[in-house]
Amino acid sequence: MPDVRLASPQGKWILLTTVLGSSMAMLDSTVVNVALPRIGEDLDADLAALQWTVNAYMLTLAGLILLGGSLGDRYGRRRIFVVGVVWFAVASLLCGIAPNAGVLIAARALQGVGGALLTPGSLALIQASFHPDDRGRAVGLWSGFGGIGAAVGPFLGGWLVDGPGWRWVFLLNVPVALVCVPIALRHVPESGDGRAHAARFDVLGAVLGALSLALVTYALIEARSGSLVVALTAVGGVAAGVAFVYVERRRPDPMMPLDIFRSRQFTAVNLVTLCVYAAFGGFFFLAALQLQVVVGYSALGAGTALLPTTALMLLFSARSGALADRIGPRIPLTAGPLLCAAGMLLMLRVGPDASYLLDVLPALLVLGLGMVTLVAPLTATVLASVDTARAGLASGVNNAAARAAGLVAVAALPLLAGMGEEAYRSPAAFDDSFGQAMVWCAGTLVVGAVVAFATVRPLPPDCRKPECLHHGSVTAPPLEGVRSRGRLTVEGDAPA
């Protein structure tokens, strides 16, 4: 049984290194959006290259995060966490020195691999190291400090872009890793799960899942050309998706057991997740561009302008979860997306002469309140919709679904809104397309609200509650406990 106490010096070191590691991945999921206009200008990149700068990272992260915990169980959680941090830092260095868009996109894909190793690994180390009496508080502190990092991220990213330059958004990860790795090696105990050696890794499933996402994403981004290659790529993406389902159904130890979807509640809440996080992914990709290209904000100004959404989530997500415990998840999961839809429609007022106090801030406050309303109940419903022993698996699937939804939205939304390859260089053209994109996002959120109202049911009284009470990330719901036998699962005795 783990016996490290949170108040001990070792406990504080463990908490510090896991927060530092996970914050690197969380920050890069948000701050890069603020840097996109400057990246495009410096590397002479078109809109498709900017889409890939975001999506290359999300692609490998979403495709591999379900395997991250199982690698730690088999080869040692500390070892895989350290490998993930080093991998992420090296990839960040490559991003920072990239001479062109192609190298930057490839390095971003490598960053996503590192993120898939260290993100579940950071929480796994906490659960494997701390005494059961302290584990719940340690997870709460980990999620709280991570939320603070997510809130500070856009501000920090904007300051770096306007100051030393966009490359420092990536290069900053290197000194963080140089601090994180020695602390982990010196103070974090190694742990693993002997049962994981009996399980086989579902490498084929992971490859097929990532390949399907990659091909579909390519087809959506390049669809403007209307070429035969794009059509064949789209067909290939669908075929890889079908093959993924076939493989997962037949393997004895799949990465994503399809029988988990026999729970109607789990299936329903993942449909809501797809709608909600597709809208979020598209919004935060385009909003940072709108504020800089059309409204005329600096990168720092755009990053600071977007702070209210993550700040509201960080401050009130725990209270939202408590409210959902009393009234049930159906109302929050219906009202939350509708509030978010209203916030995105209010963004239609954000144009060349927009006032921050009268136009931008009201939209972001309404959006933030909607996010506060829905994120905590969504996580609770995911965990409650399956057996306790599969709660971590359910959380991992939901987290991957959210990231995949954001990935597809960033690829599809510019196409749906009629954005050309050079749209972000023309304020008038981008403003017109941004308005259409916000209508698409709002419509997607309304669909999510309808699905929630029609399908979500009250939670059983003895269901597992989320451990991550404070949440500030806008890219995916909280990732809950990690323990696996070849896939993401959870410590059944983890305190709620």
UniProtKB/TrEMBL annotation:
GO terms for cellular component: plasma membrane. This is MFS transporter. It is found in: Cell membrane. Residues 14-460 form the Major facilitator superfamily (MFS) profile domain. The chain crosses the membrane at residues 12-36, 48-68, 80-99, 105-126, 138-160, 166-185, 197-221, 227-247, 268-289, 295-318, 330-348, 360-384, 396-417, 437-456. Keywords: Antibiotic resistance, Cell membrane, Membrane, Transmembrane, Transmembrane helix, Transport. It comes from Streptomyces caeruleatus. InterPro entries: EmrB-like, MFS, MFS_dom, MFS_trans_sf. One of its GO terms (biological process) is response to antibiotic. CDD domains: MFS_MMR_MDR_like (cd17321). SUPFAM superfamilies: MFS general substrate transporter. It is a multi-pass membrane protein. One of its GO terms (molecular function) is transmembrane transporter activity. It holds the Pfam family MFS_1.
